[in-house]
Amino acid sequence: MGFTVAIVGRPNVGKSTLFNRLIGERQAIVHDFSGVTRDRHYGICEWNGKIFNVIDTGGFVPRSEEVFEKAIRSQVQIAIDEASLLLFVVDITTGITDLDLEMANMLRRSPKKVLLVANKADNAERIYESSEFYALGFEELFPLSSISGSGTGELLDAVAKEISEEVNQEDESVPKIAIIGQPNVGKSSLLNAFVGEERNIVTNIAGTTRDSIHTRYKLFGKDLILVDTAGIRKKGKVHEDLEFYSVIRAIKSVDEADVCILVLDATVGIEAQDLTILAQAEKKKKGVVIAVNKWDLVENKTTMTSKEFEDRILEKTAPFRDIPILFISALDKTRIHRLLDMALEVYDNRKKRIPTSELNEVMLEAIERHHPPSIKGKLIKIKYVTQLPTPTPTFAFFTSNAKYVRSPYKNYLENRLREAFDFKGVPIIMVFREK
Ligand code: GDP
Ligand code: GDP
Q: How far is the CA of 184 from the centre of ligand 2 (A)?
């Protein structure tokens, strides 16, 4: 993965409606973390087997009048710098406005591919009217209706065409670790604590996006790659504090890593943005470790403090609670070594293969102890379990009446899997099939 589509355009043209249309029903399939707000501005879209990130830049514009146009301008600039492709949305019902023209000027100069979307093409008359937007000077124009969905297929085809297969190629042999988190939580301090004076660099490798650098290190005797999509090594603080910027950088880091170290500030705790990034990592089946940094600033620490802290975090990440949490200080270099070990442990967990015999021994016993409840008189009998040869842990349960297996029972099985075989920090996929 690693293709990011940004939706830009002035307010009220229908960006968020289009975003929801593109993200569509898929979003409902993947469970949400309880702490995440419904108000989402980024997600994952799948079309003809191609998977890409979609970001609604409008969701990041502050709703205050005076900062408005300036904020929109900087949002567009960041989208140009960071996204792989831009969808420039305009509104057929209003025609071309001054702000459309200004944005068109910025976008035409961009080296990135721009697809012009003429939204609210609800009927033939409007589709006809949309040709006025050719005046903005873009080659391709996609009239569509975000509300009804008509015309979105053509747009998605055009997007999918831009995604090359090679984006998904990666070197499987060396663990790729990304340090992610909000501004000022201590990401660059942590990176420095890891690598010291950069004596340990083996090689710099270009990442899959233009602006990311992967650096291969030998740290504490371990061979690994630190993914630096966030540019934390050569810190340009220009945009750092803009939410949109840090989100798009984090999304790209998640895409390029096997394991993400999510850094939190102990004096702040876990926030909505952390949870949405975490949800992103879970959806993409990446390994996760949470590092609660600046632990040195927490006074009167007892074991209870860290336990309470941990509970509070896991309450919010539920139902994915099997996440290792470490309390560190990048400044004092406390538990830094342990953190890296844990990240590598999660990497191994993600690659783990459980022999079928062992798996069945444990799981069939668990199923025997607690049978799936029959639903609508349908008897559910799980006969056999096997781990599929996929890049991340996926378990197939062969069963009668597969579609009647409900979430609580799935959770029971997942918990048993996690108890018996260590999958700490790793999202698990479970599928139920009829033989
Ligand atoms: P944003 O500010 O660009 O994110 O715009 P919104 O997605 O909030 O949409 C602004 C308004 O346009 C809302 O009232 C939408 O219901 C409406 N809208 C969005 N897409 C369409 C469309 O395809 N057809 C029509 N008729 N209205 C639309
Ligand atoms: P980034 O924006 O996430 O890369 O955060 P920085 O690494 O730049 O750190 C932000 C601020 O927090 C700086 O002033 C750091 O010195 C401070 N900081 C980082 N880690 C720690 C820590 O473990 N303890 C304390 N007390 N301060 C820290």
A: 6
Ligand 2 centroid distance, CA of 331 (Å): 7
- Per the model's pLDDT, the better-predicted residue between 174 and 221 turns out to be 174
| Pocket test residue of 7, 12, 63, 69 for ligand 1, highest count of atoms within 8 A of CB | 12
Q: For the chain, how many residues are written? A: 435
Residue 387's alpha-carbon distances to 77, 288, 365, 391, 395, in angstroms, are 45, 21, 17, 11, 4
Tokens of 171: 């070197």
Rama region for 18: left / alpha / beta (φ>0; ψ in -120 to 50; rest):
alpha
Q: CB under 8 Å to 66, separation ≥6 — which residues?
A: none
Cα 405 vs. chain centroid, distance in angstroms? 28
CA gap 69, 81 in Å, rounded: 18
At which residue do the structure tokens 């999510």 appear? 262
Place of tokens 């050569």: 234
What secondary structure letter does DSSP report for 402?
Answer: G
Output the CA–CA distances (angstroms, integers) from residue 261 to 292, 324, 325, 384, in the order listed: 10, 10, 10, 35
State the pLDDT confidence band at 234, using cuts at 50, 70 and 90. Answer: low
Does the pTM surpass 0.85? The reply is no
Cα distance between residue 303 and residue 306, in whole Å: 6
- 287 in ligand 2 pocket by Cβ < 6 Å? no
The pLDDT value recorded for residue 231 is 59
